[in-house]
Write a structure and sequence with these properties.
Helix content is 85%, strand content 0%. With 53 residues, the chain is mainly α. Keywords: Membrane, Transmembrane, Transmembrane helix.
C-alpha cells in the first residue's frame, strides 16, 4: 500500500515538474507542488522499505 502511494506521488510530482515547463503562468506553483510531491514520495519509499526488514 505504501509502495503504491509512494510511486503515485513520485509520478504526480514528476508530472507537475514537467507541466511547469509548459505553463508559464503557473510555473512557480507547479515547481513547488512537483518538488513537494517528489519529497513526499521519496519519504514514503523510505518508510515502505523499513517494513520489509
Amino acid at each position: 500500500m505504501i509502495t503504491t502511494l509512494s510511486l503515485s506521488t513520485l509520478i504526480a510530482g514528476g508530472s507537475f515538474a514537467y507541466a511547469s515547463t509548459r505553463v508559464a503562468a503557473r510555473a512557480a506553483a507547479y515547481e513547488t507542488w512537483g518538488g513537494s510531491l517528489m519529497i513526499v514520495g521519496l519519504s514514503l519509499a523510505g518508510v515502505g522499505l523499513t517494513l520489509f526488514r
